[in-house]
Amino acid sequence: MIAMGEVASYPLVHAVYEAAVKKGAHAQVQFLSESLRHCLMKYGTGEQVSWVPEIEAYGMDWADVYFGLRGAYNLHEHADVPTDVLATGQQAMGKVSKMRWEKTRWCLVRVPNEEFAHQAETDLETVMDMFFDACLINWPERAKEWKDIARNLERGDLVRVVGKDTDLSFSVAGRKWSVGGGKINMPDGEIFTAPVNSTLNGHIYFEFPGVFGGRLINNIRLSWKDGSLIEATSSTNQDYLHKIIDSDKGAGRLGEFGFGTNHKIDRFCKDILIDEKIGGTVHIALGRAYQECGGKNVSAIHWDIVKDIRHHGAVYLDGQPVFENGGFRSC
Fold first, then answer.
1. Is the Cβ–Cβ distance between 149 and 138 less than 8 Å?
2. In degrees rounded to 5, what are phi and psi of residue 51?
3. What percent of the residues of the chain are helix, what percent strand, and what percent coil, each to the nearest 5?
4. pTM for this one?
5. Whether the predicted pLDDT of 36 surpasses 90
6. Pairing label, strands 190-193, 178-180
7. 93: which residues sit within 8 A by CB, 6+ positions away?
8. Strand-pair partners of 284
9. pLDDT of residue 330
10. What's the rounded Cα separation, in Å, for the pair 95 and 57?
11. CA angle 301-131-57, nearest 5°?
12. Is omega for the bond preceding 140 within 30 degrees of 0, making it cis?
């Protein structure tokens, strides 16, 4: 299954389709667009917006392999959609995403275009160069390096993240650390695990805005006590933030904690497929956990939010600093 997101992604879709056919695959292309989704959320009934697209869902059962080739779109596309409607639509799409995780081998790509350059606050040539620099690295070499780090991280139990308005701790005892080494997303570059939610204590502030369903949420602050989310605030779209974390029982818990390790990505682009890989940053994900890491949390959503600790902050493992000043120390 090749999901073509926006018209601008067609050249890459054509190339991937051709390569799949040459390999003997039965390839199917579906077209997806945020402008079409906007029509649904603006004019559809509650039943229509909450409906899980049946053909798309069936595709996750049918496909062995899924490519999501997603062109960027206007982040203000859904500005006129009420918060509760947007949250309902995201929850429905999250159920399809969960099926993709569970039933396919998948790869997601944000295809650079003029809209992507605009949201990254640069020109297309600059963002295109960054994209290809981040994709065309020596993946086997980097993956081996990151796997060695992951194995060392597995020797520790307690993670503590400190930084601007941040002091968050949690256990990773018994959990695996996985590596994004060019097999799942492109560009790739992260080392991640699934926290033990009952051990979550403290607070975290995000310098970068969270982006979910095409809506920016600025200055997010989250606090937990003994695994329970006790505070969630933001300077914009706070009602939407609350709708997201209230969407199901697992949405206010952590499904992931990760390190960004791709130093060829050097600017925040307001796109999580790119931003979570920024070398020297960390990210958490609210909602669904990666089972490969031993995660238990179940949710229709998986929402990554990036924290910048490249110049202020550190990550400690069992009291020892392992990540600061933009990179790993010996651990």
1. no
2. -70, 130
3. 35, 30, 35
4. 0.89
5. yes
6. antiparallel
7. none
8. 257, 305
9. 64
10. 8
11. 30
12. no
- Count other C-beta atoms under 10 Å from residue 147's C-beta: 15
Start-to-end Cα distance in the chain: 40
Residue 221, number of CB atoms within 10 A of its CB = 16
Separation of CA 80 from chain center = 24
Q: Which two tokens stand for residue 230?
A: 């006790």
Non-local (6+) Cβ contacts of 46 within 8 A are 85, 88
> What tokens does 11 get?
């050249």
Distance (Å, whole) CA 17 – CA 264:
28
Query: Sign of the CA dihedral 89, 90, 95, 99?
Result: positive
Q: Which amino acid is at 224?
A: W
Nearest-angstrom CA–CA distance, 271 and 276: 8
Give the tens place of pLDDT for each residue, 40-81: 999 999 999 999 999 999 999 999 999 999 998 888 889 899
Contact 221/233 with Cβ under 8 angstroms? Answer: yes
DSSP state letters, 170-211: EE-TT---EEESSSSBSS--EEEE--EEEEEEEEEE-SSPEE
User: Degrees (nearest 5) of the Cα angle 10, 88, 86?
Assistant: 60
Three-state SS at 166 = strand
- What is the pLDDT averaged over residues 20-27? 97
